[in-house]
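Sequence in, structure out. Go.
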Amino acid sequence: MIMTFAMGLTMNYAQHESVHHGHAHAHGERVKAKGMAAMNNSGKFAPYEFTRHEVGDNDILIEIMYSGICHSDIHHVYEDWKTEVYPLVPGHEIVGRVIQTGKNVTKFKVGDYAGVGCLVNSCRECRYCEANEEQYCETARVLTYGSSNVFHDGEMTQGGYADNIVVDEDFAISIPENADMEKVAPLLCAGITTYSPLLHVGLKSGDKVGVAGFGGLGHMAVQYAVAMGAEVTVFDITEDKRQFAFDMGVSNYVNVNTEELDEWRNTFNIIISTVPANYEVKAYVNMLAIDGNLIFVGLPANRDVPNIDIATLIFQGRRNLFGSQIGGIKETQEMLDYSVANNIYPMVEIIEPCRIEQAYKDVIDGKVHFRYVIDMSKL
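Output:
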């Protein structure tokens, strides 16, 4: 593709067969964008034209190539967690090409690959930001979509089901040239969401790891745990994914609808739950070894959030339960580099924007193996 910029610069992007054309925006000029938006909570999408804030001195403008569909996108569109502002352009698994940079930008140059995950800004001053855990920012966390951007007059952010995005360079992830671009986008959420907690609990070679739910998040957790030397067991509700799990290196696959769980009591050093629905948490607590860790990364709709009684925690003592939310920008970059170096990618199906509504239905029904990625060049 030939892209011509305001300064007369012409570049040949042979690796990117997009039909979009980059356009350099004057200082202070809002950026025109088009995307696919949910117009209400019915799950219906329509083409939508809007503008993004100007490319500031520290910002980059990315022409989006691919945008992953995350289960949390579906929760947002259907207002499963909170009241949303429509039209809503979802998408926080984004990869593309840099087509413009602000004058202070040093991390990227025009033509680089860049990714955007769940965050586009934070206060940078609170205890979490100082610890490179911006996802827990206490005062000014700005999510990629459906979030009030306090740094730009409170305008609502719009996500990656679109042709471009403007982001501060500090919140963009560098994508190596040799990465498999069609598969990179889901790493920006599904990848970091599972990679981060496994590192934080100190997973080591030989650990027994259980993965509850073998979907978009679960199949990433499996790949990381196997790569780190763990003996991995998958727990899921269907049979159609069994061979996929063994192909990824798991030792055991358990269909919780047909197989007994008692034999797994007191077994696992780590269990990571990616389940986005209501389920019996106690069953997984019982499967932890003493001092084992049960990590929650799957977040169901508010109406389906599971519970556990305090008595279980007391009498099945010395089991640790905690939740984890994506990862900070520094750790996300580390995850991306690790994934590319070790050829760890999601299994994806590339779709056109017109298939988003059907893709949502397939994700809800568990019919995707394992992540839909939208080709934004077909917008």
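Check: Confidence is low (pLDDT under 50) at residues 1-22. The radius of gyration is 21 Å.
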